[in-house]
């Protein structure tokens, strides 16, 4: 398996994965919208995307992080917003390798932390994250308002 940081050249490999990720979360199939969204994130340098490829150069997963800032720490921090592995790539360490690459990137960038949200019933993901040193933050309560 090879993991690369995506640039515009990797767009064709990301779009089907990103679209499948959105469909998994109940969104309509929209490859055109997925292409536009990912292309804008890459072009505008608004996110960092890593793609995992199998030995046959087939993309099998991706992770996308968004930079934010910690005012208290006066450092960058990162939101691990999207992680997806195709069904054929699951239980093979692809997700773990992608998260490890995010950790490495955050350390390289001298980030203060990486944070994420997941559904309470996503036991597989929770086990992965907890097994990789993340913990449920009971210190702060998070609020959200959707528009």
UniProtKB/TrEMBL annotation:
Domain N-acetyltransferase: 1-147
Record key words, sorted: Transferase
Alphabetical list of InterPro entries matching this protein: Acyl_CoA_acyltransferase (IPR016181), GNAT_dom (IPR000182)
GO terms of molecular function: acyltransferase activity, transferring groups other than amino-acyl groups
Name this protein carries in UniProt: GNAT family N-acetyltransferase
